[in-house]
Amino acid sequence: MTAQEIINEIKPLGSDSYKKILFNHGVKEPCLGVKIGDLKKIQKRIKKDYQLALDLYDTGVYDAMYLAGMIADDARMTKKDLQRWADRAYGAALGTTVSSVAAGSPVGYELAMEWIESKKECVAAAGWSTLSDIVSTRDDANLNVAELKRLLQRVQKTIHQAPNAVRYVMNTFVICVGSYVRALTDLALEIGKKIGPVEVDMGNTACEVPFAPDYIRKVQKRGTIGKQRKGAKS
Predict the structure, then answer these.
(1) Closest Cα to residue 39, out of 70, 17, 61, 12?
(2) CA distances for 217 relative to 37, 76, 148, 156, angstroms
(3) How far apart are CA 57 and CA 55, in angstroms?
(4) Residue 15 clears pLDDT 70, i.e. is over it
(5) Where are the beta strands (DSSP E) in 57-206?
(6) Helix (H, G, I), strand (E, B), or coil: what is residue 185?
(7) Mean pLDDT of 180-207
(8) 3-state DSSP assignment of residue 216
(9) Secondary structure element (H or E) that encloses residue 169, with its range
(10) 177, 150 contact by CB (below 8 A)
C-alpha cells in the first residue's frame, strides 16, 4: 500500500469539526481532520511498515504524519530518519509522535541529548519528550541515573526561561522521572516544589499544566512508582 492510497482512504473520514479542535492545538494545513480512533484501525491492519511510515511523514499531511508514528518500525529508524522527522515536526502532537518513535530506537537517547540543546523550540521539546518516554519505558538498571539527576537540576535552573513548548515538556520530564525512577522520586518531588507552578500558553484549549509534586504524589498513593509503561506508544 502506498502513502497516497492511505490518504485516499482516510480523506473521507475527516471532518471540519475535528479539524477545528486540532487547529486549537496548533495543527495547521494540510490537515484532513481524521480522528485518532480511525487512524488506529489502519494501524491495527498495517502494524509496522518502515518505508510506508517514512513516505506518510514526507507527505506533510498532518493526519498522515501522525499515522506514520503509529506504524513506524522504531528499531529500524536511523539517526538521519529521526532527525528529519524532528526538523519537520510542529506542535505538541507531532513532537510527541517523534519522541514516541525515537524512544524505541537504538539512537533515541543519543538524539534526545542532542535535541534538548537545539534552538528550535519543537526540536528541543521533542528531546525532552523523548527522555520522558525513555524513563517511563525502561527499567532503572538500564538508565543513567546520575545523568537524569543532572537533567532534573538543569530543569530547575532553566524551566521558567525556556520557550513555551519546552517548559511544558520539561515539567512532564520531572513528573516522569519522579513517577518511574524510584531512586529519583524524592529528588523530583523536591525539585518540583522549588520550580513551583509552570506557566504555559496552552492556546485556545482547556488543557492545563499539572503541578509536578501533586502528580507524583498521586502515583505514590496508587503504589505504582516505578511501574514502567509497555511502550511509548501505548
Answers:
(1) 70
(2) 31, 37, 20, 19
(3) 5
(4) yes
(5) none
(6) helix
(7) 95
(8) helix
(9) helix 164-180
(10) no
Instruction: Tell me if 71 sits within 8 A of 47, measured CB to CB.
Output: yes
**Grid cell listed for 9:** 482512504
Q: Encode pLDDT of 81-140 as tens digits.
A: 999 999 999 988 999 999 999 999 999 999 999 999 999 999 999 999 999 999 999 999
Angle at 163 between CA 114 and CA 181, to 5 degrees: 55
Spatial separation of the C-alpha atoms in residues 191 and 213, rounded to whole Å: 9
- Find the length of the chain: 234
What does the block give as the cell for 19?
479539524
Compute the distance between CA of residue 66 and CA of residue 53 in angstroms, rounded to an integer.
9
C-alpha cell at 137: 519505558
pLDDT at residue 234 tops 70: no
Neighbouring C-alpha atoms within 13 Å toward the C-beta of 13 = 16
205-216 tens-digit pLDDT: 889 999 999 999
Cβ burial 133-169 (10 Å sphere, 16+ → b, else e): bbbbbbeeeebeeeebbebbeebbeebeebeebbbbb
Nearest to 125 by CA among 150, 156, 102, 148: 102
Q: Is 21 helix (H, G, I), strand (E, B) or coil?
A: helix
Rounded-to-integer distance, Cα 89 and Cα 60, Å: 9
- Quote the Cα angle for 214-147-93, to 5°: 55
